Amino acid sequence: MQIAKNEASQAGNLSHISQIVRSRSMWSFIAAAVLAAFYLVTSVYIASHRLLRFDELLTVHVTRLPHWATIWTALAHSVDIQPPLPYMVARIFDRLFGHSEVVVRLPFALAMVAGLLITFDCARRLTDGLHGLIALSVLTCSFLPFHGYDARPYAIYFMLSALALWVWTSTRDGNKQSAILFGMVIFLGVAFHYYFVLCLVPYALWEIIRWRPWQPLSPKLITGVVGVLLPIALLSRLILPSVRDFSPGYYAPPSLWVLRATFSNFFPYGLFPLALIMIWVVLTRTSDKAIALDAMSSGESVSWLFLCIPLAGFVLARLKTNAYTDRYVIGALPGIAVAFSCCLWRHFRRASLISLGIFLLLTAWGVVHQAYVVRHPDSVNMPEQTATTQFLKWEDVLRSDGKRFFLFPNSIIYLQAEYYCEHPDECAMLVAPDGLEYPHDPIGRYWPLTKLAQYYPLHFWKLDDLKKHAGETALIEPPPEVLDILKQAGLQVEVRFSKPLEVVYLQ
């Protein structure tokens, strides 16, 4: 009788504990959904109040080509350096919901939010709901919210990287279905961004560390390798011309300084929140007793190896692609966030107040910054976007001065102004004389515009064209080198506006 009572009491305790766990898990899901909804709504709002930047306009122009086959042909001619799939996704939204900044950015904002939730669930399965929320909040303090709604494939790249990590850590290794799913995710990732091949590096390193001569390789790794090779083979006709055109120094050349800055660029405000976290840990520790830590799980170990992705990207750029920038390795973010949350869970899972405080601190930091950008969307503009905005404000003033043509030495400002100008035919780009290059445009953006001009009407002026229409032309943001060339050609220069955007009239 007493044994039966004890068993009933133990069953009741287990049921009570189970209810508490389920309740906490439910609250974590609700919190994750609320945060995801907040970042979706605010990202859409910001996207609707910012001009499209140069790279996004390349997406727009390629997306709006008349036929799917034309898009493929344009990419084969190196109009842009991305695979076709991002343009297909943007094209569907553009056709369904109309032409606007927010529509072309919407699929990428949705992908960012999906990636946040996948990362949350990945960390939750390795730890618990609270630490899953910490992983999500880490991402909101990164540069992800800035690139998340860009009309470029970075948000989808991030989302698929998170999904690959979820499949690797949340499914059994010997399961054929999970191996096939992992390979499919890798395939899609490379089909959205060529640098996604780097996302296979953490898993390959983990398998190399664990491999023994008598053990077969992981089926997931094998399907992952197939998932990399297959899209590269299918898209080789697009990849090879881009590699040839990407000469060293053309755009974002790899350097040790850029590599070193990558990790700090991932988390632009990283040191200050980290300092607050350490202060909170010290203030809330209530015991000096040693805590026995569990061994690092395989999921956490693989996640920490995501720190190798920027290093692998740098090596790839030096050996082959000649281009490296932090957003090309955005796929490292899910692993870093999951690894950080797993590390906190191993150290502080018995001190929930510490983890709760860290979650609230990181969440507040991300929400406050996002709210600030909502109030001031221009605060995250690139310098060229700010210059384009100012030009659009002065457009009517320049017309009232009798100026019929607007000439831009800077190719980035030109493409943006041409898109938003009331009369795009009146905008043109000033091409450097033969044998010269303008040092003001060191990344050579003139090159993709010549490719784009085969499919979209763009206007290029040489010095002789400028001389014919000098009295009717306003020169926008000319660098000193261009003004010197014009003076040597016999043109008189009059500065109409000097700040915040320089406008020069010619005679």
How is this structure best described in words?
By secondary structure, the chain is mainly alpha-helical. It has two domains: 2-378, no CATH class; 383-506. The protein has helices at 2-48, 54-63, 68-76, 85-97, 101-126, 129-140, 144-147, 154-170, 176-192, 201-210, 219-234, 236-245, 256-266, 271-284, 298-304, 308-321, 333-348, 352-375, 383-400, 411-420, 446-452, 463-468, 480-488, and strands at 405-408, 427-430, 460-461, 473-476, 493-497, 503-506. Strands 3-2-1-4-6-5 form a six-stranded mixed sheet, with helices on both faces. Helix 19 packs across helix 20. Mean pLDDT is 86; it is low at 7-21.
Terminal CA distance reads: 108 Å
Strand order of the largest sheet: 3-2-1-4-6-5
The overall strand count is 6
Number of structural domains: 2
Strand content: under 5%
SS class: mainly alpha
Cα Rg: 27 Å
Shape: globular
Oligomer description? single chain
Please give the count of helices: 23
Main sheet properties: 6 strands, mixed
Percent range of helical residues: 55-70%
Which runs of at least 5 residues are low in confidence (pLDDT < 50)? 7-21
- Average pLDDT number: 86
Order of helices and strands: HHHHHHHHHHHHHHHHHHHEHEHEHEHEE
Briefly say what this structure is.
Helix content is 64%, strand content 5%.
Topology:
Blueprint: H1 2-48, H2 54-63, H3 68-76, H4 85-97, H5 101-126, H6 129-140, H7 144-147, H8 154-170, H9 176-192, H10 201-210, H11 219-234, H12 236-245, H13 256-266, H14 271-284, H15 298-304, H16 308-321, H17 333-348, H18 352-375, H19 383-400, E1 405-408, H20 411-420, E2 427-430, H21 446-452, E3 460-461, H22 463-468, E4 473-476, H23 480-488, E5 493-497, E6 503-506
Parallel strand pairs: 1-2, 1-4, 2-3
Antiparallel strand pairs: 4-6, 5-6
Helix pairs in contact: 1-5, 1-6, 1-18, 2-4, 4-5, 5-6, 5-8, 5-17, 6-17, 6-18, 8-9, 9-11, 10-15, 14-18, 15-17, 19-20
